[in-house]
């Protein structure tokens, strides 16, 4: 994140698929427990990294159903600002 400290904001992750549209995954604020979307488990790990001023998402034991376009979002000046998105594809079984 540029122009502001990541720890000063509520940060969220979303996944978009052709089948399901956009799904809220997790929201996180510094020094608070993450809040998960409906049906989303703790294998989606969001972390605020103050040293690099970044917000990351780790997907534990990724599955084919995790494929999609992932967006981070920051609550800033009473609105969500979304990142460009990152496409995730899962290889294997």
Task: Explain the layout of strands and helices.
Layout: E1 10-17, E2 21-29, E3 35-36, E4 44-49, E5 54-59, E6 68-76, E7 79-82, E8 86-88
Antiparallel strand pairs: 1-2, 1-6, 2-3, 4-5, 6-7, 6-8
Describe the structure.
This protein is mainly beta and 93 residues long. It has a single domain, classed as Immunoglobulins (Immunoglobulin-like), CATH 2.60.40. It is built from no helices and eight strands. The strands form two sheets. Strands 1, 2, 3, 6, 7 and 8 form a six-stranded antiparallel sheet that branches. The protein has a two-stranded antiparallel sheet with strand order 4-5. A hairpin with a 5-residue loop joins strand 2 and strand 3. The protein is globular and about 40 Å long. It starts with 9 loop residues before the first strand and ends in a 5-residue tail after the last strand. The mean pLDDT is 88. Pfam families: V-set. It is found in: Membrane. One of its GO terms (molecular function) is MHC class I protein binding. Its main location: membrane. It is a single-pass type I membrane protein.
């Amino acid at each position: 994140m540029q122009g502001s400290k990541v720890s000063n904001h509520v940060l969220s992750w979303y996944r978009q698929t052709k089948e399901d549209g956009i799904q809220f995954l997790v929201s996180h604020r510094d020094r608070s427990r993450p809040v998960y979307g409906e049906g989303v488990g703790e294998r989606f790990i969001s972390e605020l990294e103050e040293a690099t001023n970044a917000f990351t998402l780790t997907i534990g034991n990724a599955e084919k159903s995790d494929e999609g376009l992932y967006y981070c979002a920051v609550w800033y000046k009473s609105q969500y600002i979304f990142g460009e998105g990152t496409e995730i594809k899962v290889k294997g079984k």
